[in-house]
């Protein structure tokens, strides 16, 4: 069975609904700057790679990816596209609504854009479950990799750092410019940590600002965190761990 919805005919979609037990994965990311060494589509490419591989291994379906997210703070550098949260909520709801009318009833939404995407995705998921009678699971790599990241020696989550860089070395090595990798040590911000691994007291969310991103743009080309600890081997272990976890979620829905 084909796993990519957009490569199917409508007859193949009907068959896929039956074979997959109505399970479909929606990859969601962003199109935003990721420094000088990574492409704008990094977040979406990460989500696609997980959805594509896991759906192939489990005879489930991957929906067309959502290439945009909420990225106002990254507008300081060229290429970034930002969509208002209320539009993204309606977009994800409409995607789920459309697919539910064709028989899909179990949805896994993969978030490639970390904490910034989570609020609007939660609202869309809850609304879909209440109004459409479907099941929706949100799969976030940062939350699903806490166990393995401890052993990989990576620092805290930043932007375009060794975690994203290592993963891209595995899924799109041709798009990683290693000669442009730099380290940009993160400032400690009391009571604000975006990494779910931290054990410190933290606010749930403090929006990044254009002023902060301008500083990152000037000092490091738009990244925060270390990149020089990135490697293909670490990225491979990280990727396989996420695939394993995603398959567990899929099997739980079946």
What's the CATH first level?
Alpha Beta
H-E order: HEHEHEHEHHHH
- Rg estimate, integer Å: 18 Å
Number of domains: 1
CATH topology: Rossmann fold
Reported CATH architecture = 3-Layer(aba) Sandwich
Major β-sheet annotation: 4 strands, parallel
Low-confidence stretches: none
Query: Number of DSSP helices?
Result: 8
Overall mean pLDDT stands at 93
What is the approximate shape?
globular
Euclidean distance between termini CA atoms: 17 Å
The strand count comes to 4
Strand residues, percent: 5-15%
What does this structure look like?
The chain is α/β, with parallel strands linked by helices and 254 residues long. It has a single domain (5-253), classed as Creatininase (Rossmann fold, 3-Layer(aba) Sandwich). It is built from eight helices and four strands. Helix 2 (42-58) links the parallel strand 1 and strand 2. Helix 6 (162-171) crosses helix 8 (232-253). 44% of the residues are buried.
């Amino acid at each position: 069975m084909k796993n990519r919805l957009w490569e199917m005919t409508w007859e193949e979609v009907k068959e896929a609904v039956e074979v997959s037990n109505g399970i479909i994965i929606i990859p969601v990311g962003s199109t935003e700057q990721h420094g000088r060494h990574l492409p704008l589509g990094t977040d979406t490419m990460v989500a696609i790679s997980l959805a594509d591989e896991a759906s192939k291994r489990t005879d489930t379906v991957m929906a067309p990816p959502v290439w945009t997210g909420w990225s106002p703070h990254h507008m300081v550098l060229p290429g970034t596209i930002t969509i208002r949260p209320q539009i993204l909520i309606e977009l994800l709801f409409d995607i789920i609504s459309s697919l539910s009318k064709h028989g899909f009833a179990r949805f896994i939404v993969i978030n490639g854009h970390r904490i910034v995407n989570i609020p609007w995705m939660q609202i869309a998921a809850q609304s879909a479950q209440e109004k459409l009678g479907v099941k929706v699971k949100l799969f976030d790599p940062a939350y699903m990799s806490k166990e393995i990241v401890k052993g990989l020696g990576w620092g805290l989550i930043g932007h375009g750092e060794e975690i994203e860089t290592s993963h891209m070395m595995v899924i799109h090595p041709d798009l990683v410019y290693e000669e442009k990798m730099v380290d940009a040590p993160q400032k400690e911000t009391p009571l604000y940590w975006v990494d779910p691994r931290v054990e410190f007291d933290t606010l749930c969310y403090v929006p990044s600002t254009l002023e902060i991103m301008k500083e990152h743009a000037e000092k490091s080309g738009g990244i925060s965190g270390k990149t020089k600890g990135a490697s293909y081997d670490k990225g491979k272990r990280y990727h396989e761990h996420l695939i394993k976890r995603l398959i567990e979620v899929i099997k739980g829905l079946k």
